[in-house]
Amino acid sequence: MEAIPARARAYVACVALCALACLLPPLREAPSPWRAVVLLAVLYAAGEHVAARWRFGGTFYPVLLAGAFLLSPSAAALVAVPGALLSRAGQRPLWTRRIWRAAQLVVAVWAAARLHGELGGRDVVVSGDFPYALVPAGAAVLAFCLVLTVLDGGIRAFAERVPLRRAWRGLFLRSLAPLTVHGLAGLMMAVLWRSPYGPVAALLVLLPMCVSWWVFAQYHRERAAHQATIRALVQAVDIKDGYTRGHSERVGQASMMIARELGMDDDRVEVVRFAGILHDVGKLGVPTRLLRKDGPLTPEERRVIELHPEYGHEMVRGISFLGEARAAVLHHHERLDGSGYPYGLMGSQIPEPARVVAVADAFDAMTSTRSYSRARPVSVALLELERCAGSHFDPRMVTALARAVDQYGWHPAVTADDARTPVSRPPVSSAPGAHR
Hints:
Layout: H1 6-28, H2 34-53, H3 61-70, H4 73-78, H5 80-85, H6 94-118, H7 121-127, H8 130-159, H9 164-167, H10 171-193, H11 198-203, H12 206-240, H13 247-261, H14 266-278, H15 288-291, H16 299-305, H17 308-316, H18 325-331, H19 352-366, H20 378-388, H21 395-408
């Protein structure tokens, strides 16, 4: 995102002022051992640099939390500043993003250190009474996680225009488990730091954490490779069938909305999204002249096009990470009454992801302008889906889509090369979703 909306910049400025207020005490006086502040700040900055250079992902939260357990709130907050300001921002404007990251971490670390101190956590760390140190440390981690969640949700709402009711959804629970692990590592660092063994022993705690970060980075590299594979396949389809350019991504989005409304877990939602994106990949095996034909299809030509689910399944069957998405690619043109293709499956015989994609596919087909039909209003498309629910489409999926669209809206893009081109031929069939 090159430009940040004005309200998001104002939000960043407010958080930065709060962070500055958290940092003022150590700038006026020296309430904590500056040697520890400098060592932790250098360690955090070095860790961030290594993580960015080697693409480990994440951040060195154990170092920040160790500072929260060892130092006064303002001094602990200061640990995050150099590393955050010198980190790689990724996108422009770089300094706005760096200031946001620094301010966010300063406020979160300050809150964690303040609560930890109020609960007597620093005295317990000094005494080395490790079991009893878990209570204030756990409360500090919860505070750290909560502040990060609140601030992250706010920037999502202001910068990405995410509705407020969605901005914070799931952020806290997704962050709590990894931050708890980081908190335990930070507590071990703090206890060892105050032990006779000193800071050198505390650094040893980071070794297993670095190994885990490396493993996590490998996972993200593999995931990035998966995404690149999918993008390459979709781009190939879009190049071949220009009239449906963007259709795959929108079907993936609609499929994801339906899956979330049905209450599927995040992993399965991702699989369903992949299914929606790749549902038409089999068109790579269909002659281009048929996909771009400007007239009615003959029965023989229609049979050739109806082979695309099987072509698609053959193309993706060896991609193991797709899971259920492969079955959805094969069966997304099946109908509940058995009149679909390629195998005429009925009812529950059709895999659930395929039933999701069938509704998403038909919905986008009806709400997008093509060479042979103009876009219908969203409300009209939903009514048509409801009319065909029970015969062509699973009523649960249709209801889920209607609820999601009512809650979040739908803004389909025109996909034809020229939206003003007059309709030159009738659809392949009168049934919704019967498109190329």
